[in-house]
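Components:
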Amino acid sequence: MTVRFEGIEGTGNREQGTVGSAPLFPVPSSLFPIAAIGHVVAAVLLLAFPFVATDFFTFQIGAYALIMGTIALSLVLLAGYGGMVTLAQMSVAGLAGYMIAIFGTSAGGTALGWPWFLAIPAAVIVGTLFNVITGLLAIRTEGIFTIVITLAIATAFYYFAQQNYDIFNGHSGFSAVAPAHVLWVDWRAPKPFYFLSLAVAALSYAGVLYLVRTPFGLAMQAIRDNSRRMEAIGFNVPAHRVAAYAVAGLIASVAGVLLVWFDGGISPGSISVDRAIKILIIAVVGGMRHPAGPFLGAILFVLLQNFAIDFVNPERFNTYIGLAFLLVVLVSPDGLLGLLSKLGKGSP
Amino acid sequence: MKLFILTSLNGLTLAALYFLVASGFTLVFGLMRNVNLAHGSLYLLGGYIGYEAAQVSGNWFAGVAAGTLAMAVAGVLLQVLVFRWMEGQELRQTLVTIGISIVAADLMLAVWSGNTYQFNPPAWLIGTTQLPIVLAHKSDGTAVLLPYPTYRLFLLAAGVVIGVGLWLFINKTRIGMMIRAGVDDRGMLDASGINVHVVFAIVFAIGAGLAGFAGVVGGTALSIAPGEDVRYLLASLVVVIVGGLGSVTGAALGALIIGLAEQFGLAYFPTYGIVLTFVIMVAALAFRPQGLMGRARA
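Structure:
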């Protein structure tokens, strides 16, 4: 078998041959019209979805998939475009969620009761800073070590939140976390919450798509492909990498705020290793070569999570998810997007 | 003073356990560049199998042997059936180990449920031993010695024996020489006519077997329950980050530091114990990113 992860660091000798032919743009130019049409179709479908679907589908499926997709998108930015596979994105989202519960209003632990326009930016800033620090640590080493370090950080944060009652209220965490009623709208009602999630997801998606075409984004991808060459040319490789962590932290934090509202609370279980790995599964299954991948993966994941019960023993959900993940890793390393683009190239 | 001595001893015995788990992890990485995130699953599965074997045979040592051998076989199977076919693709191998750990954790939950298992070592390992450390003197002049659980002393001894054995194996035997050569230059080892796949399989068997062994002896000292796989995976990760990925000596040093730090944290500032471990990891990354014993990669 010769398939391998194109465009992800640490997959063997990419010094020779592949660098020159690696696409600088994630979407091959011949596919670009298809991508443009795809964007319009997706936008129409996503905007019309809550008016056709039931409240359950709008909230439990639609909004949840958009939020998980956004968190996975932050991983794709780092892993797919930066070659840094991190497992700490869920911790970033979780920390932002914890901060919303602590700065804003919640039940369980000590909440400061700040108004939403202070609590949200504060939570997002804390989450982003956390990812910057994670990045500063992770970039001390290269390649596969990133996974080791970020997994250690994610696990340590989980155990810390579980043991610490002063800040994180230990095992029970916080409950009754809900968005404020702003402009006379209950933002946790299915339709408003869906559109809120959609807005965040769309902005993040467009932001990533734009960012990877800026000089910064192109430098990022060049660093992914050959960091030593970029360093020799005179690029500040560590600064680029930390900046990527900052952007990814921003995206994950905003999604984390939505996630804590969706869950209605947060506890160490929300930031468990299990969930951190699910973010990686979503990104890998969807495909890490384009920002659409994580959303595709998230939709599939959420649908499976909700409806696999009807077909298989729900208690063994993790076994099926794990096997599906193994299958994708073994058969189509580029995920569903890779499969789709192969099909797309095959047809006239 | 008593607290200090007890904490030090607890730290040392925990370090022995961490070393047993982390040495297998670091050995596999050192040679095959395979970050085996299913290492915690091997630990837990070894513990469960050891428990079952000990229940059936009524002999604790049979349990230890069963757990160790079963995981060694599992390691060889993983290497021969899975990882051999994706050599050099580090990320893909790691993703596969993540998939395996998810499935393994769920299947173990299905078989052994969420209960906590505890089993007893042989009678002569139960109880306490008087250590030659004088705590106080009675009025008639006899010394009051510090009692310490015998089993934990056994754990410490097992860690030291296996550590020394591993060092001798790697530094003094022919296979050990091949392993060291493979760590330095895999291609050259292959070119000198040695079947690297056999060496890889042996190393994976040792690494996985050590995890299984640790699962049984550690499970006897503490307990076996779902979630322990993640706990010991984290311990292995932190130990090798501090000690240096790929170095067995580094694993010993890292285990010592982390084991002691964890126990002292637990004894002196309970809810922030994990922070101390974490601070050590951060400090190691900041000042010596390759780990204390790791070699800087060109």
